[in-house]
Structures are given as C-alpha cells and as structure tokens.
TrEMBL record:
Its main location: membrane. PANTHER family: INTEGRAL MEMBRANE EFFLUX PROTEIN-RELATED (PTHR23513), STAPHYLOFERRIN A TRANSPORTER (PTHR23513:SF11). It comes from the Bacteria. It is found in: Cell membrane. PROSITE patterns: MFS. Residues 28-422 form the Major facilitator superfamily (MFS) profile domain. InterPro entries: MFS (IPR011701), MFS_dom (IPR020846), MFS_trans_sf (IPR036259). GO terms for cellular component: plasma membrane. One of its GO terms (molecular function) is transmembrane transporter activity. Keywords: Cell membrane, Membrane, Transmembrane, Transmembrane helix. This is MFS transporter.
Length: 422
C-alpha cells in the first residue's frame, strides 16, 4: 500500500522535473541560437565586404576566386579532422575557440599594415573557412545532447531559422555598411559578432563532443586502427542504410547550389543592367521567407505528431528545390519567379532539417565524423562547381548551366529515393 502510494506520488514529481529540464534546455538552446545568428550575420556580412575589399585591394577578379578557393579548401580540411577533434575535446570548447579564432583573425586584418594586407586576407580566408566548418559540425552533432533526441527537429529548425534571418540581414546590409562607414568599421562589426557568439557559448553548459556516449571519451575500436579519421568516418556512413548515398547527394546538391549562386548575378544583369542587385536581393529575401516558413511548419508538425520528416523528406525536398532553382532562370514573370523562389526556400529548409536530423540519429561516437565528412563533401561539391560553372557561364546561358547542375542533383535524388523505398 505504502509502496503503491509512493510510486503514485513520485510520478508527478518526475514528470514535472522532466518538463522543467526540457524548458531549461530549450531556453539555453534559444540563447545559443541567438548568438549563432549574430555570428552568422557576421559571416554573411564578410562574404560581401571581404570580396569587395579583395577586389578593391588587388584590382583582379582572379584574386576573389583565389580567396574563395582558400576558404573552401580550409573548410574541406576542417571537415576531415573535426570528427577526431570532437572525440578529444568538448563541443563547447570547439565552438568557443572557433569564434575566438574568427574574431582574432579579423583583428589581425584590421591592424595589418598595407604591405601585409594581402597575406592577412589569405589568413582570414583560411581561418574563417576552417572555423566556420568546425563550429557548424560541433553544433549540429551535439544537438541531441543539448535538447534531447525528441527535440532534434525543433532545434534544427530553430537554428536554420536564425541563420536564414542572419543571411538576409547580412547580404542586405553589407553594401550599406561598407558605403556608409567603410571597410574598417565593417570588419570591426564583423569581429564583434564573433565575440558575442563566443561569450554566448562560454556562458552556457553545452553538452556533446569529447567522445560523447563512450567511456570517458575513450576512442572506439575504429579510431584505434589506421589513419585517425578515415575508419570512423566511413564506418559512420555504413551505420545506416542509404546514408552514404545521402551524403553523396548532399555533395551533388552543393554542386548545384554553386550554379545558381554564380548565375544569379548574370541573370539579374540581363533583367536590369542598371541595377542588377535589386533582383538578387529580392530573390534571396523571398527565398529566406520560404525557408523560415518551412521551419515554422516543421516545428508545428513535429510538436503535434512527434515525428521528423525523415530521409524521404530529404530526397523529395531536393527534387523540388532543384526543380525550382532551374525554373527560376526560365524567364517567367517576376510574380511567378517570386513564387518559385518561395518554393525553393521552403524545399531547401525541408531538406536541411531532414538531412541534419537523420545524421543526428547516429551514435554520438560516429555523429561528429559523419557531419565532418558531410562538410567535406559539401565544400568539395561547391568548390568544384564554382570552377566548372564559372567556365560554363562564359559559353552557355544561366538557364542551361543551372539546368544541368541541378539536373544532376535531381538524378541522384531519384536514385536515393528508389534506394530508400526499396
């Protein structure tokens, strides 16, 4: 009798304690996303400001290409090593020092004498490319420990929403900031965003990393044999059916993304040569609205059903997104193109949540390696795409180039869907 009464009395306490813990973890994660959104604003701001500064400093478009190549290459390398770093260090320390590194290198650029500016720019490109990948992988791979397995989709949607808002703000304000206050002030603002994110990370008790899920962070068997990152990374791809093809599709999708990023300014110039930035800005703003809208729908869906969109959502979303980006260059009226951009943004948001949530189902010991290898594939796809697309746009129309680039993603997505459905 007393035992039964005790159990009954404890159950509400246990339930209320779990509710309180969930509320606390969600509040902390919102705080982290706020800091992440601020640093993302800095990232998108410097994408524009640094490219303009590189071109103004060197007077050569080739220098901008080299700057981007160094950035992508450093992100590629960081993706290879981040899984091993997460096995040895906490996610919090990696996220903290990634922001400190980006802020510090911006300070180096600000203080660099004129004779060393070119070298400082290359250092900025290298550090920002590497640290951006390190932060992103540490964040995404640690979300299940931060908020719980059942809140993964909600957390992913929230972080993507923050980044989408930051992207719009960064791209929209970059030209205004540079023209009104100059490059030095823009770089100081950029540095401040990384400092804010670093302080946010430092103040929070962030779980994950350091061999999460293993005995005191000891390396697993796969890590002990052969080169450090390769066995565990490829073991991660074999851990779930179709995961290797899913990561490959993500790389091909990045290849397709390079085409519309490169072709959009050219297409915009053909529409309005006197003010091409208007169409580009409007397109990305509408795209972001679609992305943010999709996140709200996904959050409500997961709260109501307790389900995630899954691997099929990633495959179908990739098909819709790629088809929408192709249609965006087909010369439709502006109102129709705006609707297409909205659909592309929504599908892009769906694919990112589905993909990230699926990789987060891996064991903690494999998750960091899988996200690192994924980042490597994405940087490789985007980097190779930028080279091939730049050459192709000299000879072919934007529609043709975007068509075959995103067409490749559609083909691989169909193969992936058939594989998952089999």
């Amino acid at each position: 009798m007393g035992s039964a009464d005790g159990t009954t009395a404890d159950e509400p306490d246990g339930g209320s304690r779990k509710t309180r813990d969930t509320a606390v973890s969600e509040r902390r994660f919102r705080f982290l996303v706020a800091g992440y959104a601020v640093s993302s604003y800095g990232t998108f701001l410097n994408m524009v400001a640094l490219n303009l500064f590189v071109y103004e400093t060197t007077g050569r478009a080739l220098a901008m290409g080299l700057f981007m190549a160094v950035r992508l290459a450093s992100g590629f390398v960081a993706g290879l090593v981040v899984g091993g770093l997460l096995a040895r260090f906490s996610a919090k320390s990696i996220m903290l020092w990634a922001n400190v590194g980006q802020g510090a290198v911006m300070l180096v650029l600000i203080l660099a004498p004129e004779s060393l500016v070119t070298g400082a720019l290359m250092a900025v490109s290298m550090v920002i490319g590497a640290c951006g990948t390190l932060f992103m992988v540490a964040l995404r791979s640690s979300i299940p420990e931060m908020v719980g397995e059942d809140r993964r989709a909600w957390a992913n949607s929230l972080s993507i929403t923050g980044r989408s808002l930051a992207m719009v703000a960064g791209f929209a304000s970059a030209g205004v900031v540079v023209s009104l206050v100059g490059y030095t002030a823009a770089f100081l603002l950029d540095m401040a965003t990384f400092v804010i994110c670093a302080v946010t990370v430092a103040l929070l008790p962030i779980a994950g990393g350091k061999g999460a899920g293993t005995d005191a962070g000891k390396p697993g068997k796969a890590e002990k044999s052969g080169p450090r990152w390769r066995p565990v990374a490829f073991l991660a791809l074999a851990a779930a059916p179709g995961l290797g093809l899913m990561v490959a599709l993500r790389g091909v999708d990045a290849f397709g993304s390079s085409s519309h990023n490169a072709a959009l300014p050219i297409y915009s110039t053909s529409l309005d040569a006197s003010n091409p930035a208007v169409f580009v800005s409007a397109f990305w703003c509408v795209w972001a609205l679609g992305n943010i809208g999709a996140q709200q729908v996904i959050q409500r869906y997961t709260q109501r059903t307790g389900k995630t969109v899954g691997a099929l959502g990633f495959g179908y979303g990739t098909v819709v997104m790629s088809a929408a980006f192709i249609a965006a260059f087909a010369g439709f009226p502006l109102a129709v193109t705006a609707l297409i951009a909205l659909i592309a943004g929504a599908a892009d948001g769906l694919t990112e949540v589905a993909y990230t949530s699926h990789l987060q189902t891996l064991p903690a010991t494999l998750r960091g390696h899988a996200f690192g290898l994924s980042a490597t594939f994405e940087n490789l796809g985007f980097g190779v795409g930028m080279i091939l697309v730049a050459a192709a746009l000299d000879r072919f129309s934007p529609l043709a180039v975007v068509g075959w680039s995103h067409g490749a993603a559609i083909v691989v997505a169909v193969v992936f869907l058939l594989r998952v459905a089999a």
